Amino acid sequence: MPQLISKYKLYLYLFFFIFLTSIFNFQFLENYKNKFSLKSISIHGLSNSEKKDIEIELNKLKNINIFQLSEDQVSEKLTRFNFLENIHVSKIIPSSIKINVSRTSIIGKTIINGQKFYIGKNGNFINNNLLFEQNDVAAVYGDFKIEDFINLIKTLRDYEIETENIKSYYYYKNKRWDLLFSNSHTLMLPSKNEEESLKIYKKLLNNNYLINKKTIDLRIPNQIILKNNNE
Q: The domain 40-103 is classified under which CATH number: 3.10.20, 2.160.20, 1.10.150, 1.10.3470?
């Protein structure tokens, strides 16, 4: 009989041990879960107005375990804010993430299906509603591909042609551009050998051949057609 009582006590002690250990483990896991849940998100590189909607979107990630949160999950939340570039996400243990980001340069504006869009240097058409600061940039007309316009801007700057002095760009179906400058010059570029034409334009400009000229037509190879203001 004493042996039975001894076994009973042993089982009872074992039961309480397992029970108490389970409670301890449960509390430990809960504390672990809470301690490493995402609670704070900081964004650096943008104005407060630009950060507002982004913070609302990123707050959906809160309470996710920071070790399970991937940079791709954060980037996915940022995809609709396509005026962003140079995104870098850092985890700060135990419960924060820091996002360094910059706003892309705006290099033009255009109309698509009746709606205004800005053209970002990052290669995106950016909805007017996403930007809080109005950008005084050149208007771009025509059915153009954004990469063609970005390449044109790069080429102009390579030849030290000040794009800040260009009011409008016109793209034509034969894949060529007209550029209207703030001094009322219109530069008509060819569909091919664009770089060679820009070299010619730069020479004419530097040698003061364009004073009182309205149109500089370089569409035809080996020909320069200049029109005066009164023509």
A: 3.10.20
Task: Give the model's pLDDT for residue 209.
Answer: 83
- The residues near 181 (Cβ < 8 Å, ≥ 6 apart) are 165, 166, 167, 187
pLDDT at 150 (0 to 100): 97
Q: Do domains 40-103 and 106-228 have the same CATH topology?
A: no
188 closest CA partner among 144, 159, 227: 227
Second CATH level (architecture) for the domain 106-228: 3-Layer(aba) Sandwich (3.40)
Nearest to 118 by CA among 137, 132, 92, 144: 137
Distance CA 93, CA 32 (A): 12
In angstroms, the CA 211 to CA 107 distance is: 27
Residues of the chain where predicted confidence (pLDDT) is lower than 70:
1-33, 133-134, 229-231
pLDDT for 21: 53
**Are 108 and 128 a contacting pair, CB within 8 Å?**
no
The strand ranges marked E within 80-150 are 84-92, 96-103, 106-112, 115-120, 125-127, 139-141
pLDDT of residue 100: 95
Are 71 and 64 spatial neighbours (Cβ–Cβ below 8 Å)?
Answer: no
pLDDT at residue 8, as a whole number: 52
- Whether residue 58 contacts residue 74, with contact meaning beta carbons closer than 8 Å, is answered with yes
Question: What DSSP character marks residue 88?
Answer: E
